[in-house]
Amino acid sequence: MNSFVDMPAMMAACRASCGTVHLVGAGPGDPELLTLRAARLLAQADVVVYDHLVGPEVLALIGAQAERRYVGKERSHHSLAQDQINTLLVRLAREGRRVVRLKGGDPFVFGRGGEELQVLAAEGVPFEVVPGVTAACGVASYAGIPLTHRDFAQSCTFVTGHLKDGSCDLDWPMLSRPRQTVVIYMGLGGLAEICAQLVAHGAPATLPAAVVQQGTLAQQRVVAATLDDLPERVLEAGLKSPCLVIVGEVVRLREQLAWFEPAGAVAPAEATADMTADASFSG
After folding, report:
1. Which of 98, 99, 142, 256 is least enclosed, having the fewest CB within 10 Å?
2. Using CA atoms, how far apart are residues 4 and 11, in angstroms rounded to an integer?
3. Residues in CB range of 249: below 8 A, 6 or more apart
4. How far apart, in whole angstroms, are the C-alpha atoms of residue 51 and residue 63?
């Protein structure tokens, strides 16, 4: 008996019988920030498996023929475990369906896209990736905060404020260095600890920082302050997830560059005096 397995032939057979999973980034919220390819795939899909952060304006672009599968994860509540989502994607593809796995932002930036594709690859399921505008870039742009600037920030770091084990044990010495911008995903719940740890590891308490809620949407709200008082200001404003935290001297530029101010946005006027008091710090 010949035990040789022709893997290329097996993969070709799978591609002929399986559907394809398209891992698609939905962008930060505003549907006009979708790529053309993403919009076309949504219109053509047989089934769309989507996350909590995908808004109704983007979902409206899904074709009428498509089945919708919600697999969103919210704090302390997951509609499906990650292993179940992986299994669902494999099963739908093996049914010969055109599958769109739709994720907020960019699927390769804190979106678990790589984990899901590892499973598809191991199961021989064909897939493609359609990048999206990641939340850091889209939300910062709509908040009037450039992530880099020759006078203030020569690097930019993206981190998650919520690790796989639920902790917030980050590389604080690295994140506290001057002349950079730090963007923290999923950091609202641990905001007080984040600000305290940055100050404890060398960042000035007067370093500008901002929290942006529902960035790029009509419901966008922004609180700009300093590390010292940002948690209190955010609590007073009643901001709720989804939020993005931006830390660095570039936040000062929001006062000059903010262009998108929907009704109800929180102005940083109260923080202006605190922020300008230490304008000589270039971190």
Report:
1. 256
2. 15
3. 149, 152, 153, 179, 207, 208, 281, 282, 283
4. 17
- Interacting residues of 40 by C-beta distance below 8 A, sequence separation 6+: none
Mind listing the pLDDT tens digit for each residue in 233-258? 999 999 999 999 999 999 999 999 99
Burial class of residue 279 in the structure, from the number of CB atoms within 10 Å of its CB (0-12 exposed, 13-18 middle, 19+ buried): exposed
Instruction: List the one residue out of 139, 136, 148, 135 whose CA is nearest residue 253.
Output: 148
**Which residues are tagged catalytic?**
51, 73
- Distance CA(214)–CA(23), nearest Å, equals 23
Domain residue extents for the chain: 7-133, 136-276
The single-letter DSSP state of residue 127 is: E
Residue-wise pLDDT for 102-158, tens only, equals: 999 999 999 999 999 999 999 999 999 999 999 999 999 999 999 999 999 999 999
Asked if 96 contacts 16 with a C-beta cutoff of 8 angstroms, the reply is: no
* Alpha carbon distance 71, 50 (integer Å): 6
Architecture in CATH of 7-133: 3-Layer(aba) Sandwich (3.40)
Which superfamily, per CATH, for 136-276? Answer: Tetrapyrrole methylase, C-terminal domain (3.30.950.10)
The tokens describing 157, both together, are 């770091």
CA distance 213 to 143: 10
Question: Which residue bears the tokens 């305290």?
Answer: 196
3-state secondary structure 14-72: HHHHCCCEEEEECECCCHHHCCHHHHHHHHHCCEEEECCCCCHHHHCCCCCCCEEEECC
